[in-house]
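step=encode ok
step=design start
structure_in=
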C-alpha cells in the first residue's frame, strides 16, 4: 500500500512538473512571439510609397520615406511594436480610462481625472487641426495599428493583464500630449489655492516675505533683478504670540474635492522633508563667436524614469524643398509622430518646462438658485455626465459642472466654489504645430513656428548652422486683464479671454556674450516676465550654476557642454555646510562628544553630490529638516484654515529661510525653542539620530545609498520572481536637484544631447535604458551604462545592422 501511494505521489509530482514546464515554455514562446519585426519586407497598405527602416547596433532606426505622412506611418509601426503598452497608458491616464485595463483598483484615478474631459477635448482638437497635421495623425494611427496587428502575440503586458490591446485613434496622440500637461503643470490649481489661503491668514508683509518672486540665486538670461523683501518686524507678526485655533470651514456639498498630492512628488524620501522635487530640465546654447565658429546646443529633460524610458530615439529622412533630403534626428514621444527635441541639419532645438502661470482658480459669485455671475449676466452651470467603465463590467457615472471658464473643481477655505481655467483645457493647448518646427531652417523661422505652436508651456532654445542662438516660449499664452496677482485665486472679472498673438510673445536672439541657458527658473524679468507669469518656477541655483559654468570656460567641443550637464558640484549647499560647521563648534562638541563625528563628516563632504559622500547627505538633510520645521511653524495659520495648504508650494522660500537662519529674529522663532542656536543644534542632532539609528556608522550613510536608482516597469511589482527582469540595475548615482546633474532615485535626465546643427556627426547622446520595452530584446537596456557613466555616445545612428522594408 505504502509503495503504491509513493508511486502515486511521484506520478502527481511528475505531472505537476510537466504542467509547470509546459506553462513556462508556453509563456516563453508567447513572450518571444511579441518581439518586434526587425528585418525583412512587409506590405503596409496605408503607405503611399516604399519606406526603409535601418537599425543601428543600439536599435535606433533611420526611417527613409517619400513623405512626412509615410514617415509618420512607419514611426507609428515601430512605436507599436516596441512600446505599445507605454503608449496605451499615456492615452488612458488623461482620458480616465485606466479602469478598463486594470479594473476597479483604478477607479479613483479615473474619477479624479475625468473632470478634465480630455477625450472629448482631444476629438475637438483633431477636428480643428490643419489638414496637413490631421493627415499625419491619421497616417501615424494607421501605422500603429498595423504594427500591433503584425505582432505574432499580444505585447506581454496584455498577457499578464489578460486583456486585448485596443486600436489607436488620431485623437489618442492628442491625449498623449495631455498626459504631459498632467506631468508638467498644476492641473488642479493647488498652488494658487495655497497662496490664497496664506494671503487670507497672514499680514501682507509676512505674505510678501514668504512669497517673493525670486531670490539671490536668480540667473535670468536678460540680467534682470528683483527687489527682495526684508524680514517683517514683531509689530507685524510675532510667532511667540500665536495661538492658532482650527478655523477650517467644513466643506458644503459633494463638490468639495481635496487636492491630490502633487504629481511631481514622485519619489518617496528616505529623509523626511524632501518630497517637493518638481520635474524640470536644462537647455543651453553657445553662439559661433563663443564656440569656435559653430553654434552648440545642449539639452537634458528631467522626468520620471520608468522602464521603458519615455523617449524613443529615431532619425527621419524625407525630401525637403527642392528635392534635397532633410533629416531630423532626436527623440520621439511614443504615441505621437513628433520629433520632440533634436536637430534637422539646419537648426537644433531643446526644451525645458516653463513654470509660467498657465492656470487660474476663478472664485464663483453664486446665487441661491445655483446660478453664477458672468460679465454677461447670470448663468447656470452645465451638467455633464461621464461614464467610467471598469474591467469586469462595472460602470460608474461622474457628474461634472462646467462653467464658461472651466469645470467646478472645489471649494476654498471660506466655502466659495471655484472653477478651473487652465490652458490644458483649450483647443489651442495641444495642437501638433511642432511638426512645422522640423522644417525650420533658421533661428527666425524656428521662433515663428514656436510662437504659433501650443504644447505644455516650454522654454525652447534654438541654435542654427549659421552660428546663431535664441530663446522663446512655446505655449498658448492667455490674454489677462491687468491689476491682479495671478498667483492667487481670482474673481470672475479677472478671468482671461482669448490668447496673445505670436508677435506679443517674448524672445531673445543672439544675446551679448553669445550664451543662453534655461533651467525652469525665472528666465526673464520686466514685461516679459509679466507675460509669462509666475506659476511656481523653482529656485535659480541650477540655472546660475549653468550660467557661471558657461561663462567661466572656453567652449570648444560638444564634450565641454556634456561636462556642464554632468556637473554635480554642491554650490547651492556650500553656505549651508559652512553654517553647519559654525553650529558644530567646540562648545557643541564638548556638550555631546557624538557631534565630533558629525562635524568630521561635514568637514569632509567633498563639495559634490557624489555617491560616496556622507557629508553631502548630512548637510542636505540638515537644511531639509530646518526648512520643514521653520515653515510648518510660520504657516500654521494657513494649515489650520485649510488642510490642503502646502508650504512646499512656496517655490522661492529659500530667500526667507536663509534670512531667518542668519539674521535669527526672535519673534519668528518657533516657541518650542529658547533660541535659534538651540533649534539649529537640535536639528543637527536629529540628523545624527536619523542616520545612525540601528547602530549604523554615520560615515557609511552615503548620498549614493539614498540616491540609488529604482527604474522599473509598471508591472514589475505584480510579477513575483520574473519582475526583476523588468528593472534596470540599481546604481548609486551622483547628482541632485539644485545642480545641473539632476538625479533622484526615480527621476533624472531622461536624455542628454549636445549637438551643433549641420555637424551632427560630432554630436553626443545619452538615454537611460534602451529602445525597446521588451525584456527579451537586446535593446531593452543597452544604452543604460553609458548614461550612468556619462560616457559620450554618438548623436546620429551609427551604422546599419538590420534593414526592414515596408511597401504599399
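sequence_out=
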Amino acid at each position: 500500500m505504502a509503495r503504491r501511494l509513493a508511486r502515486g505521489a511521484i506520478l502527481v509530482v511528475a505531472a505537476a512538473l510537466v504542467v509547470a514546464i509546459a506553462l513556462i515554455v508556453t509563456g516563453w514562446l508567447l513572450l518571444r512571439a511579441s518581439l518586434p519585426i526587425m528585418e525583412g519586407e512587409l506590405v503596409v497598405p496605408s503607405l503611399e510609397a516604399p519606406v526603409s527602416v535601418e537599425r543601428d547596433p543600439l536599435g535606433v532606426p533611420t526611417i527613409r520615406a517619400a513623405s512626412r505622412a509615410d514617415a509618420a506611418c512607419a514611426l507609428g509601426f515601430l512605436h507599436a511594436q516596441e512600446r505599445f503598452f507605454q503608449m496605451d497608458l499615456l492615452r488612458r491616464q488623461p482620458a480616465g480610462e485606466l479602469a478598463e485595463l486594470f479594473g476597479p483598483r483604478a477607479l479613483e484615478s479615473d474619477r479624479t481625472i475625468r473632470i478634465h474631459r480630455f477625450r472629448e477635448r482631444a476629438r475637438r482638437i483633431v477636428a480643428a487641426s490643419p489638414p496637413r497635421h490631421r493627415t499625419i495623425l491619421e497616417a501615424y494611427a494607421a501605422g500603429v495599428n498595423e504594427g500591433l496587428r503584425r505582432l505574432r502575440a499580444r505585447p506581454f503586458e496584455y498577457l499578464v493583464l489578460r486583456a486585448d490591446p485596443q486600436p489607436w485613434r488620431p485623437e489618442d496622440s492628442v491625449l498623449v500630449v495631455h498626459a504631459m500637461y498632467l506631468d508638467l503643470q498644476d492641473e488642479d490649481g493647488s498652488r494658487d489655492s495655497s497662496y490664497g489661503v496664506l494671503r487670507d491668514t497672514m499680514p501682507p508683509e509676512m505674505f510678501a516675505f514668504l512669497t517673493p518672486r525670486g531670490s539671490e540665486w536668480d540667473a535670468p538670461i536678460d540680467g534682470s533683478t528683483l527687489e527682495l523683501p526684508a524680514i517683517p518686524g514683531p509689530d507685524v507678526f510675532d510667532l511667540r504670540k500665536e495661538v492658532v485655533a482650527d478655523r477650517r470651514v467644513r466643506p458644503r456639498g459633494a463638490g468639495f474635492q481635496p487636492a491630490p498630492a502633487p504629481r511631481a512628488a514622485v519619489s518617496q524620501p528616505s529623509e523626511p522633508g524632501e518630497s517637493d522635487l518638481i520635474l524640470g530640465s536644462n537647455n543651453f546654447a553657445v553662439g559661433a563667436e563663443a564656440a569656435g565658429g559653430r553654434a552648440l546646443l545642449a539639452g537634458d529633460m528631467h522626468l520620471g524614469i520608468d522602464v521603458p524610458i519615455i523617449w524613443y530615439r529615431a532619425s527621419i529622412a524625407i525630401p525637403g524643398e527642392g528635392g534635397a533630403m532633410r533629416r531630423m534626428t532626436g527623440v520621439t514621444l511614443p504615441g505621437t509622430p513628433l520629433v520632440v527635441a533634436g536637430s534637422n541639419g539646419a537648426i537644433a532645438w531643446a526644451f525645458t518646462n516653463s513654470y509660467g502661470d498657465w492656470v487660474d482658480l476663478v472664485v464663483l459669485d453664486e446665487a441661491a438658485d445655483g446660478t453664477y455671475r458672468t460679465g454677461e449676466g447670470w448663468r447656470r452651470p452645465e451638467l455633464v455626465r461621464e461614464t467610467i467603465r471598469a474591467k469586469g463590467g462595472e460602470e460608474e457615472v461622474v457628474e461634472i459642472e462646467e462653467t464658461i471658464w472651466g469645470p467646478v473643481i472645489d471649494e476654498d477655505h471660506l466655502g466659495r466654489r471655484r472653477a478651473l481655467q487652465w490652458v490644458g483645457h483649450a483647443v489651442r493647448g495641444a495642437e501638433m504645430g511642432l511638426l512645422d518646427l522640423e522644417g525650420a531652417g533658421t533661428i527666425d523661422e524656428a521662433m515663428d513656428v514656436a510662437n504659433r505652436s501650443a504644447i505644455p508651456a516650454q522654454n525652447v532654445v534654438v541654435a542654427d548652422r549659421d552660428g546663431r542662438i535664441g530663446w522663446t516660449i512655446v505655449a498658448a499664452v492667455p490674454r489677462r486683464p491687468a491689476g491682479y496677482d495671478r498667483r492667487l485665486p481670482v474673481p470672475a472679472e479677472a478671468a482671461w479671454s482669448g490668447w496673445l498673438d505670436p508677435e506679443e510673445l517674448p524672445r531673445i536672439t543672439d544675446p551679448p556674450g553669445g550664451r543662453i541657458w534655461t533651467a525652469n527658473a525665472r528666465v526673464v524679468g520686466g514685461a516679459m516676465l509679466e507675460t509669462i507669469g509666475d506659476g511656481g518656477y523653482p529656485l535659480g541655483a541650477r540655472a546660475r550654476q549653468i550660467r557661471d559654468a558657461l561663462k567661466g570656460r572656453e567652449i570648444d567641443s560638444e564634450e565641454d557642454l556634456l561636462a556642464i550637464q554632468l556637473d554635480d558640484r554642491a554650490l547651492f549647499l556650500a553656505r549651508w555646510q559652512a553654517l553647519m560647521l559654525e553650529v558644530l563648534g567646540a562648545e557643541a562638541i564638548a556638550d555631546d562628544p557624538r557631534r565630533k563625528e558629525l562635524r568630521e563628516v561635514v568637514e569632509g563632504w567633498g563639495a559634490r553630490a557624489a555617491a560616496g559622500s556622507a557629508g553631502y547627505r548630512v548637510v542636505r538633510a540638515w537644511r531639509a529638516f530646518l526648512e520643514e520645521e521653520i515653515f510648518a511653524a510660520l504657516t500654521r495659520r494657513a494649515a489650520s484654515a485649510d488642510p490642503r495648504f502646502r508650504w512646499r508650494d512656496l517655490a522661492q522660500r529659500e530667500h526667507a529661510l536663509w534670512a531667518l537662519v542668519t539674521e535669527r529674529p526672535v519673534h519668528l522663532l518657533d516657541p518650542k525653542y529658547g533660541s535659534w542656536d538651540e533649534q539649529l543644534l537640535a536639528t543637527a542632532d536629529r540628523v545624527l539620530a536619523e542616520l545612525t539609528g540601528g547602530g549604523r556608522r554615520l560615515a557609511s550613510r552615503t548620498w549614493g545609498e539614498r540616491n540609488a536608482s529604482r527604474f522599473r516597469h509598471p508591472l514589475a511589482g505584480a510579477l513575483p520572481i520574473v519582475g526583476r527582469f523588468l528593472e534596470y540595475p540599481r546604481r548609486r548615482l551622483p547628482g541632485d536637484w539644485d545642480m545641473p546633474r539632476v538625479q533622484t532615485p526615480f527621476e533624472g535626465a531622461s536624455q542628454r544631447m549636445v549637438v551643433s546643427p549641420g555637424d551632427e556627426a560630432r554630436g553626443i547622446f545619452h538615454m537611460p535604458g534602451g529602445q525597446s520595452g521588451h525584456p527579451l530584446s537586446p535593446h531593452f537596456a543597452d544604452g543604460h551604462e553609458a548614461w550612468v557613466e556619462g560616457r559620450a555616445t554618438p548623436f546620429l545612428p551609427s551604422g546599419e545592422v538590420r534593414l526592414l522594408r515596408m511597401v504599399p
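step=design ok
step=annotate ok -> Residues 213 and 423 are 22 Å apart (CA to CA).
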